[in-house]
Amino acid sequence: MRVYLSLLILVVVFAGQFGRGECTKPFISTSTVTASSQLSPQYSPEHAALSSQTAWCPKQNFTDEEYLQVDFGGRKVVKKIKIAGEANPPVNETARSVTKYLIQVSADGATYEDFDAVSKPMAEMEIRTQYIRLKPLEFHKFPCMRLEIYGCKAKNPELCNENNGGCSQICEQRSKYCIFGKCYFNCHIDFLCTRWVECKCQSGYKLLANGKNCADINECETNNGNCDQICKNSKGSYQCKCRNGFLLDSDKHKCNDINECNNNNGGCNQLCRNSFGSYHCECSVGYKLSQDNHTCVDIDECAVDNGGCSYGCQNLQGRYICTCPIGFELDRTQKNCKGIKFFPFINIQIQMNACWPMVAARLTATIPMEAITARVTMALSYTIHSNVETLTNAREILTIVTRPLQAAKISKEDTSVPARVASDTNRETHSIVTVIITCPALLESMGTSVSPKPQCLVVGGRKVNETCKFSCNNGYELPDPKKDTLTCLVTGSWDASIINCQHYPKPWITCPTDVVATLAPNAKEHDITGLLSQPQSNVKNIHMYPDKYRSSLVFPSGLTVLTYVASNEIGETANCTTVVTIQGKKGFNFKMFIIIIIIIIILLYYYYYLFIWFFFVFVKLTFEESQRFKSLRLLTFSFSSDQQKPTITYCTENIYQAISGSEASVTWTEPSFTDNVEVVRVTSTKKPGDTFQIGSLTVLYEAFDAAGNKEGCSFIVQLTRKRCEKPSEQPDNGELVCNSIGDFLYCSIKCNSNKQLFKYSFGSSCNPSSLKWSPEEVLIDCVDSVAMPASGECPHPTIPQPSLINFNNPAKPCVKCPRGMKYDMTQKDCLACPIGYTSEQESSLNCTKCPEKKSTRKEGSKTCEDLCDKGMSSGDGFDSPDKHACYFCNVGFYQDQYGATQCKQCPNGLTTIAKGSTSLDDCGITPTVSSFGPPSMVVDVDENGRVQFECMAAGPPEPTFLVKKTKPAPDGFGGPVRIEYIRLGNAVTGVRYIILSATEHDAGLYFCTATNKFGSDTKQLTLNVQISGGSGLGNRSSDKRSRMLLLLLLLLLLFLILLVLLLLLLIELVV
């Protein structure tokens, strides 16, 4: 015993002495040294020790990733690292050595992290690690090195209850039996037990090289944290965020574009254009955006240069028109006036004598007002030239009232008329000429009425100082209620612009959510300030009723209904209600409470056995009479319910149309739906024939069944305007310059210096009526050229410059083939690359095929563009969001090709499960069980007899079958069963369920379910087994039993109604 004790003491002493002293023990000789590569066996990692006669050197063609690695065999504390170069360099040469290196550490030998870069032979530090790497960064001649690493084992013991073991976060206690530096088995007693700690970090942190401290992991530095847009790092975690206009997906990483236009049209008054991450409002022709960038206001074209009209200009909502005086009409420009009749040259002398009679006939002409005023004032003779066919810059109407002279004393040849009449007898031989000034005719814009109509809406109908009054129809209002009248001025114009009534949108309002609050003890009222939010509306004029709650939100106990009314400027209103409930404690009627409790106990006592008996009888009869009493089974409130959504049998494809105006009526074939029970209602956001504005709008159809399940189908209607548009591309080595001439668009190419048009042309113009360019080629590239040699034959690889007009370029240059074409050596001509091919440089000898999922729009294209992927389509087959974005094929359609302009419809009424189907195999339909059993739904069989059911169903895809008894027979009591599959060719079309020897336990309800990925269908039948010497099970029903079932049901309902009423009364007393 003493010997063992002495040995034990010696072990403890040696164990205690082991490892004492300074932390300067060399590790290389006891460690495993490896490297990324080696120059030769003489310069392998085995020669990396500081005592080596050579050194470690990497391979001859080394990379930046070379390293020397040391595995200590366990965690050590590294205090110093000393390096040196090659030990024995060749004669007269300096040693190859590393002058700067990077220290990397690892706890598992797989993942390394940078610790520090060192540029001196001896470096001091403190690292707790098992693996260490040295990566050469800078070197002399070649990165060779020797090294020694000094340190010691970790402090022993280290306990987590002592300053958390020095760990900054998680400290895990470790303990093993250790002798002479080697550790074995976990400790169970303290004797010879060595304890240490392992530091770990929480999620989102990493352990630093010192093995103690944790640092935050910036997840955003690695692939942006897998965030779509913005990655925000935080201590121990990170968060993905989206820019304005995007919404974070449920996966917390992906950002989805918010289509603001789907929510109340983005608040836009007319057109809403959604863009990636934003949206903007636009206006139809004749309108402009107001300062709020949402509301469109009419442009008064007449306010600028009279709208370009030569005579009268009338502004209307969204447009304007030019007007002409009597005797004139608008020419083809719809701006200038031209004469309808030809008036001869007439000389008339105006005699200002009001006493002479006025005659009836009228002669109308148009001259500047300034001339009329001057001549009439001076009472001088002047000439009216009425034979001017086209009048420009004429603003006033002169109506001269006269009558043909009776005695014909004044003829067309007369050049003058006496100024005065000598006698009364000659008074009829002359005329009194009266000057009458009138204003232009007015027009009624939408929602506007003018009175008096017969005079205000015709030319010459209103004279100087006469007025026209404007009024507005329902839904419209005057811009200025104080200004509703226009007065005709002596200048022949109205005193203000034409009045157009403004249309006000119907108001809408969304009320705050209902408020429920509880009275404080002994309080009679409750203040809900802070609980009641503000209503939302598109108008500012909102009132709350009753009025008293506008200033104070203190409500009494009970229920109060608040009504919010929103009204616009023309008195149209919208309203909604919010219910405020203030709960309070009522007095407790103890006597009534006791009486109700007693009544409920008595009812339960007498009805207990009736209820239990009824439940079992009811369930038994329901199963037995499932076929005979189908209508009664609907009253059993079975615990199953319809959870199957309606199925889309047809969903309309996306619609793309180009129109000439700003809106158009669009029609389509409406989607269709089916359901396992019945589709009771189909709603849609738009109907065929509705009017759509320029832009893109999603139409949604939703089908509902009786259980409230719904399924939706959506498609896109996108309208673009037909108009001459400047090509979006630019020619090679030149610039496309376009100018508008009226509605025509003219474009020409301006080549860079030392470049020549590939085809000679003066330019091309687009006809707005046909939208066709002439010549058709608008975008012509500029290419290198050389002068035509004297031989008249162009050198390879050039060709004589082609011409798009009736004559050639006088310079006769030889031009190279542009990109998108190839030079054919045989034909000595430039040939356009076919669709799907292009060329990258001038006069290429070959065309290059576009990469997969890319193609060209036409022959001779220079650029391969992205095609729509499988399962998608666009208006032109290309994925260009600025023109035609790709959209997924709707339910019921698929596309198995790239670059489709439309999706393929599933044949024969088949459909797909979801959008974006890529194969005909994705088309199918919910299987339908066409038959189950013998034709009768009630099957009789004798005991020990053979019976079989056949269940037939069709897909596609091919369904699976399940035939099962609702309540399976107990094990060993049912007859033996064999199942056979019915095939048509290789396809399974049904299943045959055979009971070889039926027993009484086989009687009951059976169902057959056919299932595929589109859904399932079920049919049922009842099997009656005729027992020897008695009647068949399941066939014992009678009219008496049926009447008993109905009676029991009525008694149970009566009892339940009475019980519910008593409970409600009880609740009323307690609450």
CATH class of the domain at 30-153: Mainly Beta
Q: Compute the number of strand runs.
A: 78
Unreliable stretches, pLDDT < 50, 5 or more residues? 1-21, 341-433, 626-640, 1030-1038
Q: What would the CATH topology of the domain at 30-153 be?
A: Jelly Rolls
Domain F5/8 type C: 15-152
Domain Ig-like: 927-1024
Domain HYR: 501-584, 641-721
Organism: Pocillopora damicornis (Cauliflower coral)
List keywords for this structure.
1071 residues; Immunoglobulin-like; 78 strands; Jelly Rolls; mainly beta; EGF-like domain; transmembrane helix; disordered N terminus; repeat; four-stranded mixed sheet
Task: Give an overview of the whole structure.
Among the domains are: 30-153, Galactose-binding domain-like (Jelly Rolls); 444-503, Complement Module, domain 1 (Ribbon); 509-583, Sandwich (Immunoglobulin-like), CATH 2.60.40; 647-721, Immunoglobulin-like, CATH 2.60.40; 925-1023, Immunoglobulins (Immunoglobulin-like, Sandwich), CATH 2.60.40.10. Strands 1, 2, 3, 4, 5, 6 and 7 form a 7-stranded antiparallel beta sheet that branches. A hairpin with a 2-residue loop joins strand 75 and strand 76 (987-995). The chain has 1071 residues and is mostly beta strands. It starts with a helix and ends with a helix. The protein is extended.
